[in-house]
Amino acid sequence: MTPHELLSPEGMVAARGFSHAVVPAPGRTVYVAGQIGVDAEGRLTGPGLVEQFDTALGNVVTALAAAGAAPEHVVAMNLYTTAMDEYRGNLREVGAVWRTHMGGHFPAMAMLGVTELVEPRAVIEIVTTAVVPDA
Length: 135
Fold this sequence. Notes:
Layout lengths: L4 E3 L13 E3 L3 E9 L13 H18 L7 E8 L2 H6 L1 H12 L5 E6 L10 E10 L2
């Protein structure tokens, strides 16, 4: 699992699919820029949220790996979507995509509905912070 301390404090609703707070282990911080569902040639991988989420989250994991980090090192993640209804209607599929890339690790997260992203056809963008623990 993660080297970081994931917190769900008493007196708060149980966290499902996220952590209320994360105390990172001492280490090197990695900031991953907003990732959308584009392949290496810059093509969107589908019109739908699930397909784009799969590619965007895969891009996050690839960027983490390039920095010497892994999914379990993620301490915070913000997801921005122009398709909140599609997200809510496909939670099972979104969960399967999450498990493919992130396993059972759930950092501190926020899912925000927005009116648009820089790429007009993109429906999701993911911004991530990870901490690679000291050796």
